[in-house]
Amino acid sequence: MSLKARAREKVERAGISNYTFDHDVLVMCGVRYTLAACNCGEPDCDGVRLERNAAMGSRVLQ
Ligand SMILES: [Zn+2]
After folding, report:
1. CA 6 to centroid of ligand 1, rounded, Å
2. Neighbouring residues of 58: CB distance < 8 A, sequence distance ≥ 6
3. Which domain of life is it from (predicted)?
């Protein structure tokens, strides 16, 4: 399964339907999250991490 598909499952499981994808970047509530593979090994890990794109956030604030 692709990271994008995993991320989609993750946010939908969290009950979030107001999201979109800009190529491989997840956009929720105007915040962009970079998708990264997660290898933490936790039993409930879904294999994807969402990394908040700080650079984008600060640009919005300016
Ligand atoms: Zn993990």
Report:
1. 12
2. none
3. Bacteria
Q: How would you write the pLDDT of the chain (62 residues) with one tens digit per residue?
A: 799 999 999 999 999 999 999 998 999 988 999 999 999 999 989 999 999 976 554 555 44
| 4 C-alpha to ligand 1 centroid (Å) | 15
Q: Burial letters for 16-51: b for 16+ Cβ neighbours within 10 Å, e otherwise? A: eeebeeeeebbeeeeebbebeeeeeeeeeeeebbbe
Residue type at 1 in one-letter notation: M
Whole-model pTM: value is: 0.75
